Amino acid sequence: MLRDCFLPKRLAIYCTGLLILALGTALFPLSRLGSGAIVALPVVLSHFTNLTLGQGSFCLFCLFIFLQILLEKKFRLKTLLQLPFSLVFGALVDFYSLTLGLAAWQPEAWPVRLFLVAAAICATSLGPF
């Protein structure tokens, strides 16, 4: 009963973390200095297909959820609740990449690229925190 009282606060913290993590995911490919573990496969997927980075992230998370369902001893319906949040995460990555103009901006200066990769590392580490 006490845990239910804090649900709006927990949901707000989760959504804020999701926003920060999606920003970090969108910043990694922009720096062109490598990528983090959460971004590596979606970046490769987006380079070899017509998928955007957000769509690639969503496809990869769907694969992870499917594998989680296979590995669980007992199927739980709440496992499928990860799907809408994965969709929102992919949409947020595409929002940051396309709407804010991050996809069109290709910085050449090394200090800018180093700043971007540092910002991406900070965002992907602070998002889940």
TrEMBL record:
This is Uncharacterized protein. The chain crosses the membrane at residues 12-31, 51-71, 83-104. The keyword Transmembrane helix applies. InterPro entries: YczE/YyaS-like. It comes from Enterococcus asini ATCC 700915. Keywords: Membrane, Transmembrane, Transmembrane helix. It holds the Pfam family DUF6198.
